[in-house]
Amino acid sequence: MSYVLGLKCRECGQHYPQKGVHVCEVCFGPLEVQYDYSAMRGRVTRQSIESGGLNLWRYRDLLPIEGEPRTGLNSGFTPLRRARNLEKILGVKELYVKDDSANYPTWSYKERVVSVAITKAAELGYDTVGCASTGNLANSVAAHAAMAGLKAFVMIPHDLELGKVLGSLIFNPTMVRIQGNYDDVNRLCSEIADKYKWAIVNVNLRPFYTEGAKTFGFEVAEQLGWKLPRHTVCPTAGGTILPKIYKAYREFIDLGLVEDNHPKIYSAQAAGCNPVVEAIHAGRDLIKPQKPKTIAKSIAIGNPADGYYVVQAVKQSGGWGADATDQEIVDAIRLLARTEGIWTEPAGGTTLAATIKLIQSGRIPRDESICVCITGNGLKTVEVVVDQLAQPPSIPARLEAFDAYIHDSQTPAAAGAGNPVMTAGKA
Ligand SMILES: *Cc1c(COP(=O)(O)O)cnc(C)c1O
Ligand SMILES: [Zn+2]
Fold this sequence. Notes:
This protein has 427 residues and is of the alpha/beta class. It has a domain at 80-107 and 211-384: Rossmann fold (3-Layer(aba) Sandwich). Helices cover 38% and strands 14% of the residues. It has a six-stranded mixed β-sheet, sandwiched between helices. Helix 5 (136-148) links the parallel strand 6 (128-132) and strand 7. The chain is globular, with a radius of gyration of 22 Å. It starts with a strand and ends in a 12-residue tail after the last helix. Mean pLDDT is 95; it is low at 423-427. The site of pyridoxal-5'-phosphate has 17 residues, from loops. Zinc ion (ZN) binds next to loops.
């Protein structure tokens, strides 16, 4: 059974049936899925959710599909880890990492939105799906379209990391590199959606797509033992995930599944592309578009579609925002790896670096629970660390050679000596 009533304009309240539209014909406001929450009460319970599979569809009563899921049956329900080593280093009492670098099958939070959008596209009768992407979305659309047996058309900026490009191509979509930045790709995809009648997951299927991001927040709450973290730090690109995590928390509170601890949510961006954090700091609701210049390419969106709603969620919750320079991003990637054994990409480095700043500035108190949202995997972006890691020594395959290496490496002179910078990635 489905609790979906239809689509509704977020600005003027106009109703629409469920179809591939995302903008209100009356006022050009964005459309959002509307649910019958009163019918859910008493029916959507901790028990009903716990009886579902260990994947994102255990929350299907709160997702906009009518029939059976078409894909994503192995996606979601990623680890929520208590980060005790980081707690010590940062001097905080209770820190968690929600780790979507381990999300199946393409290792980012995008599995969540794509599983819902592709299921919906099939339900609405589309045979071709597509996206405008900074890389991870294209990977996920290409893989899930392959699983669901749909044609995929993915569009990316021309200058993405090799791992992100190959991570789509291997699934055999039609892929086009656009000579411009993400905002140019997105504008083109809006025109394509109108003209070709495809399901562009983050354009005309956006109302359904964005709902999938709620599952990140649902999982955090359930995995914490049906509790909310007091502080949640989340990266912002187009502005989908942050407001939807907050919405997930509010839905669980309203359904009586968790206690209201007044959860606060914080936006993390790269200093080289920080239009939302800049607006939060300036106390403005409107976003001033920027030209991105950062290694955090997956979140380099200068004109975020839902930036306004990120600012609203942050303000409403009493949260804040912080940005990080490229070097701070790489340092945080390495810190998370060596303390917790998690290799994230620059979006995750940005989020951890921002968390550290929010703690140091006193915005996040050290004695309250904190959740850091890790949204992507570092193996796709080796470029950002290749120059920062030392080449390991190479020795003959003899025990004396190893003994000599151990002896030398423990003498004071060798301790601080750097090895040659690794260049394997470029060779
Ligand atoms: C897409 C993406 C985000 C966030 O994007 P939103 O559009 O704000 O939801 C964060 N991290 C990674 C790794 C991503 O790929
Ligand atoms: Zn409207």
